[in-house]
Every structure is written in structure tokens, then in C-alpha cells.
Specification:
The chain has 171 residues and is mainly alpha-helical. Helix content is 82%, strand content 0%. It has helices at 2-46, 49-61, 68-73, 81-106, 112-136, 145-170. Helix 1 (2-46) packs parallel to helix 6 (145-170) and helix 2 (49-61) packs antiparallel against helix 6 (145-170). The longest helix is centred in the first third of the chain and has 45 residues, at 2-46.
Amino acid sequence: MMVAEGAKIGVEKAASLRIAAVVALTLSFVYCIAAAAWYVVPWLRDVERSAALVPLIWVHVFRHVALQVFGAATRGFDVPHHVRDRIVYGDLASSVLAFAALAALKFDLTVAVALVWIFSIVGMLDLVSATVGGLRSNAFSKAFDVTWLILTFYVPILWTTHALIVWKLLD
């Protein structure tokens, strides 16, 4: 009887973590989109492309924070290794490409816009891959601490800024 009750509590805890994550993720997306629409888009319309892209790209330089998944894996964030590795190495690649794009913009290199496109495409593909892998491995019910904040707070910011980057590139 005790084992069944323990399993029930485990299932309830996972369900409540998943619900909390979905609510937090939804609110983060709503707030990011509202901030973008109310403040960022009007500013982006008045700013030259390179100057507009710089702050949007800086947000992505810090994607190396995904390295914390290795530590989280030792404390209960037990997603499959191939999912964990895709998350970490995709974010590392995005981080490095974002910095390269920023350097190219800073020094007004002819490859700057191409690097921004490459960074943005790689970054968005990584977010899709990580999202699919995370959903398949039930990551929301396993995430806690920094991992939970990344999933529910930072990821919506990444998606929003990617959309703004692509919009400004096409503008």
C-alpha cells in the first residue's frame, strides 16, 4: 500500500510540476510578445539594422548556460543523453555563432548579415530540436532550479528575439 501511495505522490508531483511549467512558459511568452510589440518593435523601426540587431543577438550569447544541464543530470534531470547533448551542444554552437555575428557587426565586416542569418537559423533549429527532445523525454516534469528557469523564462525570450531578428533582417 505504501509503494502505491508513493507512486501516486510521484505522479501528482510530476503533474503539478508540468502544470506549473506550462503556466510559467505561457505567461513568459505572453509577456515577451507584449514587451516586443509595445516597446521593442517601435524602437526597431527607427533604428538602423546593425544597431537594432546587436541587443537582440546579445541575449543569445549567454546560451552557454545550457552547460548546467550536465550538473542537473546528476541531480534528477534525467533526460536521455542524446537529448541532453543536443540541448547543450546546440546552445553552445548558437552562443559561439551569436558572438561571431556580433563581432562581424561590430567591425562592419561584409559577412556580418550572413553570419546573423546563419546564427539565427542554427539557433532556431536548436530550439526546435531541444523542444521536441524535451517534450518526448518529459523534461518539464523533471526540471528544477536553473533548468526550470531556463525552460520557462529564457527560452521564450530566445524565441521572441529570434523572431525579431528575422523580422529585422527581412525589413
